[in-house]
């Protein structure tokens, strides 16, 4: 009988493995991001996020009791950053149309954000997946259709797989009931209004240890929050050639989104006709 014993894996070997595989992490430490994370605009929150910011290639869930708890103001720093960098910004199926004057108060040109709607809930989920697969956006914010029932785990898994193949930021906004259901999303936050100017942030899931204490974050204020460089830019609009280039970048993503919505609607119509023929 062999007397050979197995030696434990050295700490250096473990650290080397963790540095090569960002999807692995120690339970006592925050995980790392595969790509450079995007600062959230809230330093206290960044310190609690893997990679010290919003991770790319990741499905990020924002849960809330109801729309209007400050979720868009909470995302305003990253929206403003992406708009200022000329990235494509998509809002898929928001419950209300974005208010253009409010966006301008935060230094965001209303034309920088493209809104895509879909009436049928099944079409909406399918369209969100197709847009994320297209990898033609810098920031995608999607409201999931969960008025009747939460999205299924397999549907969310497809969204996570699509987000993992993209290079942008992928946010899905969901209702409070979703916190009691399983989700493959690596990062889940619950938002609630702490005051008219503050949001309460609970980290329900992250690659790292449990954070038991919620974070109270002050929401950005219009105009006063803008950096001086952007205030000057508002007074002196960019050259038209920059605007044309910016619109050209957006059009690729808009076409992808509208193609996904249109394809979903055609698919729904085809299925409806097939069912009608079967019943006849």
β content, as a range? 15-25%
What is the share of helical residues? 25-40%
Gyration radius over CA: 21 Å
* SS content category: alpha/beta
- Poorly predicted sequence stretches spanning 5 or more consecutive residues: 233-255
How large is the count of helical segments?
8
On the 0-100 scale, what is the average pLDDT? Answer: 76
Taking strands numbered 1, 2, ... along the chain, how are they ordered across the largest sheet? 3-2-4-5-1-6-7-8
SSE arrangement, N to C: HHEHEHEHEHEEEEHH
Describe this structure in a few short sentences.
The chain has eight helices and eight strands.
Walkthrough of the structure:
The protein is α/β, with parallel strands linked by helices. The protein has 8 helices and 8 strands. The chain has helices at residues 11-20, 43-46, 71-84, 100-105, 121-134, 153-164, 228-235, 240-279; strands at residues 59-64, 89-92, 113-116, 139-143, 169-175, 187-195, 198-205, 215-218. It has an 8-stranded mixed sheet with strand order 3-2-4-5-1-6-7-8, with helices on both faces. Strand 2, helix 4 (100-105) and strand 3 form a beta-alpha-beta unit. Helix 5 packs across helix 8 (240-279). The protein is globular and about 40 Å long. The termini are far apart. The relative contact order is 0.17. The model is unreliable at 233-255 (pLDDT under 50).
């Amino acid at each position: 009988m062999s007397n050979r014993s197995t030696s434990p894996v050295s700490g250096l070997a473990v650290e080397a493995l963790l540095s090569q595989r960002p999807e692995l992490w120690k339970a006592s430490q925050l995980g790392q991001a595969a790509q450079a994370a995007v600062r959230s605009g809230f330093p206290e929150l960044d310190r609690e996020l893997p990679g010290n910011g919003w991770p790319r290639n990741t499905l990020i869930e924002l849960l809330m009791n109801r729309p209007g708890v400050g979720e868009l103001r909470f995302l305003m720093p990253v929206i403003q950053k992406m708009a200022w960098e000329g990235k494509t910004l998509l809002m898929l199926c928001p419950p209300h149309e974005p208010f253009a004057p409010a966006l301008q108060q935060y230094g965001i040109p209303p034309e920088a954000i493209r809104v895509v709607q879909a009436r049928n809930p099944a079409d909406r989920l399918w369209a969100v997946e197709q847009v994320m697969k297209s990898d033609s956006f810098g920031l995608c914010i999607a409201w999931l259709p969960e008025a009747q029932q939460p999205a299924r785990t397999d549907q969310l898994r497809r969204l996570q797989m699509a987000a993992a193949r993209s290079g942008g930021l992928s946010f899905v906004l969901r209702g409070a009931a979703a916190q009691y259901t399983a989700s493959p999303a690596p990062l889940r936050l619950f938002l609630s209004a702490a005051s008219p100017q503050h949001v309460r942030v609970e980290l329900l899931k992250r690659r790292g240890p449990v954070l038991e204490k919620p974070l109270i974050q002050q929401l950005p204020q219009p105009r006063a929050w803008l950096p001086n460089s952007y205030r000057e830019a508002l007074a002196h609009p960019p050259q038209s050639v920059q605007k044309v280039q910016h619109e050209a970048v957006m059009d690729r993503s808009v076409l992808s989104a509208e193609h996904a919505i249109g394809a979903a609607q055609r698919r729904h119509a085809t299925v409806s006709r097939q069912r009608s023929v079967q019943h006849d």
